[in-house]
């Protein structure tokens, strides 16, 4: 079974614009399918978020940080 969804990329948003450009500039030899690229990107992002939530050190750092930047600790 194939499931479809739509993703909107807003040109006014820098992250959206960059994501669109990356998706459409993929090396076809390295990334055979845009769909698979998106699937792996979602899975990777989700797994990193879950690891951060479960990492007590990350919580301490997050509590002591007064910036809006993301903190990635580890792999």
Spell out the key features of this protein.
75 residues, extended, mainly alpha, CopG family transcriptional regulator, single chain
Number of helices: 3
Shape estimate: extended
The overall average pLDDT, rounded, is 82
- Main beta-sheet strand count, sense and barrel state: none
What is the multimeric organization of the chains shown? Answer: single chain
Number of strands: 0
Question: What does this 3D model show about the protein?
Answer:
The chain is mainly alpha-helical. The protein has a domain at 33-65. It is built from 3 helices and no strands. The chain has helices spanning 14-24, 34-54, 56-64. The chain is extended and about 40 Å long. The N and C termini lie far apart (34 Å). The model is unreliable at 71-75 (pLDDT under 50).
Topology:
Elements: H1 14-24, H2 34-54, H3 56-64
């Amino acid at each position: 079974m194939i499931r479809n969804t739509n993703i909107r990329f807003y040109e006014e948003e820098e992250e959206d614009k960059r994501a669109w450009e990356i998706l459409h500039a993929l090396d076809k030899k390295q990334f055979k399918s845009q769909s698979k690229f998106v699937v792996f990107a979602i899975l990777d992002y989700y797994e990193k978020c879950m690891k951060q939530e479960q990492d007590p050190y990350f919580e301490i750092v997050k509590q002591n940080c007064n910036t809006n930047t993301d903190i990635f600790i580890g792999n």
